[in-house]
UniProtKB/TrEMBL annotation:
<keyword id="KW-0067">ATP-binding</keyword>
<keyword id="KW-0808">Transferase</keyword>
<dbReference type="Pfam" id="PF22025">
    <property type="entry name" value="ThiI_fer"/>
</dbReference>
<dbReference type="GO" id="GO:0000049">
    <property type="term" value="F:tRNA binding"/>
</dbReference>
<keyword id="KW-0963">Cytoplasm</keyword>
<dbReference type="InterPro" id="IPR049962">
    <property type="entry name" value="THUMP_ThiI"/>
</dbReference>
<dbReference type="InterPro" id="IPR003720">
    <property type="entry name" value="tRNA_STrfase"/>
</dbReference>
<keyword id="KW-0784">Thiamine biosynthesis</keyword>
<dbReference type="GO" id="GO:0004810">
    <property type="term" value="F:CCA tRNA nucleotidyltransferase activity"/>
</dbReference>
<feature type="binding site">
    <location>
        <position position="265"/>
    </location>
    <ligand>
        <name>ATP</name>
    </ligand>
</feature>
<dbReference type="InterPro" id="IPR050102">
    <property type="entry name" value="tRNA_sulfurtransferase_ThiI"/>
</dbReference>
<dbReference type="GO" id="GO:0005829">
    <property type="term" value="C:cytosol"/>
</dbReference>
<feature type="binding site">
    <location>
        <begin position="183"/>
        <end position="184"/>
    </location>
    <ligand>
        <name>ATP</name>
    </ligand>
</feature>
<keyword id="KW-0820">tRNA-binding</keyword>
<feature type="binding site">
    <location>
        <position position="296"/>
    </location>
    <ligand>
        <name>ATP</name>
    </ligand>
</feature>
<dbReference type="InterPro" id="IPR054173">
    <property type="entry name" value="ThiI_fer"/>
</dbReference>
<dbReference type="GO" id="GO:0002937">
    <property type="term" value="P:tRNA 4-thiouridine biosynthesis"/>
</dbReference>
Length: 400
């Protein structure tokens, strides 16, 4: 006897309504992709769940691979037995023995397949009685707060016996909310913002601005490392690497220093918009948090955002830095983010940046800037890379 299945539950509430079918299909496809390296393992949809058949493969790598898949609420190791009371009794005892530390237990039978002749209450007694006898006083029943809760679920195709559950990544299946172009720097915030959007079902393409030789190869590598960490939550990712040196030096020459940062951000947003339109993407996102720095005041956002009417999503807008740092540690990007590097935004960054830049002033200064030519040239010289999935090495929380 051995663990031979994993039962996956998904967020029932989020998946109600007419989108349910397509969400389920997407989730199944994402699960299959996450398990592609576990040869022999099969996943299918059944009775409002997704069932993974292990086919002799050890469950540990499968459990690990499922942890970062968005849209999974929780999942449990399961043993499938025939619809036969004796088989259920032996199965329940096997499951209980997986918890050697348990002093109390409970059997929770559920007869979802009504033609099975024994009802749930009777099954609780028959299975519980067998286990008590087999353990010969080593364990007691506790129906309110058992150390081990053994679920016995009778389905037409067989009975699934489970105990406990792993917490899933929650959220919505990746891809169910469409695509977003995310502005990724090498800092702490933007990878966390990316993760939050992915958790809400948004598939991301990344855009990064770099200014060689002021920003070096290592800075670029660091950003790609962050992308690689994020791919474990959703497979491949396209990265647009935009050369920004020419624009920055041009702005530095043409614009008063107090407006350099504002104009530079406006240029970034214009370029992001062009790439989003080219790729059929409906929104841009970033890691801004209200009031964090001069470029993130309301006045700055008002002036910078003027250049596009594509929605700019800011998942961290109202989050404190400590919370963001906590999340960065949790998702595994923090250690990479804190490595020293030069972001293009810090090159020639004047100390007198306006915290309340005005649209009228920005437009006036831009009269000296070759806005369209420079943006088009940057788009034309953008390098496009695809970063592939890496197997998850995730901490898994076990809920008992
Ligand atoms: P982060 O920690 O994400 O770098 P930050 O607090 O350092 O954020 P800023 O440097 O002001 O803030 O950047 C604000 C946002 O602008 C970033 O979160 C990111 O979305 C975007 N951004 C900044 N620099 C770049 C860059 N070089 N390429 C792409 N996006 C960038
Ligand atoms: Mg930054």
């Amino acid at each position: 006897m051995n663990i031979d299945h994993i039962l996956i539950r998904y967020g029932e509430l989020a998946l109600k309504g007419k989108n349910r079918g397509s969400f389920e299909k997407l989730l199944l496809a994402n699960i299959r992709r996450a398990l592609a390296h576990c040869e022999g393992v099969k996943a299918r949809r059944t009775f409002g769940r997704i069932v993974v058949e292990l086919n002799g493969v050890a469950h540990e790598p499968v459990v690990e691979a499922l942890a970062p898949v968005f849209g999974i609420h929780s999942y449990s190791l399961a043993l499938r037995v025939e619809n036969d009371v004796e088989a259920m009794q032996r199965g329940a005892l096997f499951m209980l023995n997986q918890h050697p530390e348990a002093k109390t237990f409970k059997i929770s039978a559920r007869r979802a397949y009504k033609p099975f002749p024994t009802d749930s209450q009777t099954l609780n007694h028959l299975v519980g009685g067998y286990v008590l006898k087999a353990k010969d006083g080593a364990i007691a029943v506790n129906v309110h707060t058992p150390d081990a809760n053994i679920n016995v679920e009778v389905r037409e195709s067989g009975t699934y016996i489970t105990s406990g559950a792993f917490a899933g990544a929650k959220g919505l299946p990746l891809g169910s909310s469409g695509k977003v172009l995310h502005m990724l720097s090498g800092g702490i915030d933007s990878p966390v913002a990316a993760h939050l959007l992915m958790q809400r079902g948004a598939e991301l393409e990344m855009i990064h601005f770099h200014s060689p030789p002021y920003t070096n190869e290592r800075a670029k590598q660091k950003v790609l490392d962050l992308v690689r960490i994020l791919t474990k939550y959703g497979g491949e990712m396209t990265v647009h690497l935009v050369p920004f040196t020419d624009i920055q030096t041009h702005i530095h020459q043409k614009v008063p220093s107090s407006y350099e940062m504002t104009i530079m951000r406006r240029m970034m947003l214009r370029i992001a918009e062009k790439i989003a339109i080219e790729r059929g993407i409906l929104a841009i996102s970033n890691g801004e948090s209200l009031g964090q720095v001069a470029s993130q005041t309301l006045a700055s956002m008002h002036t910078i955002n003027e250049v596009t009417n594509v929605p700019v999503l800011r998942p961290l807008l109202a989050m404190d830095k400590e919370v963001v740092i906590g999340k960065a540690k949790q998702i595994g990007t923090y250690e990479t983010s804190i490595l020293p590097f030069e972001d293009c935004c810090t090159i020639f960054l004047p100390s007198d940046s306006k915290t309340k830049p005005k649209r009228t002033n920005a437009a006036r200064y831009e009269q000296h800037v070759e806005v369209e030519e420079k943006c088009n040239a940057a788009v034309a010289e953008t390098e496009r890379l695809t970063i592939a999935t890496r197997t998850a090495k995730n901490e898994i929380e076990q809920l008992f």
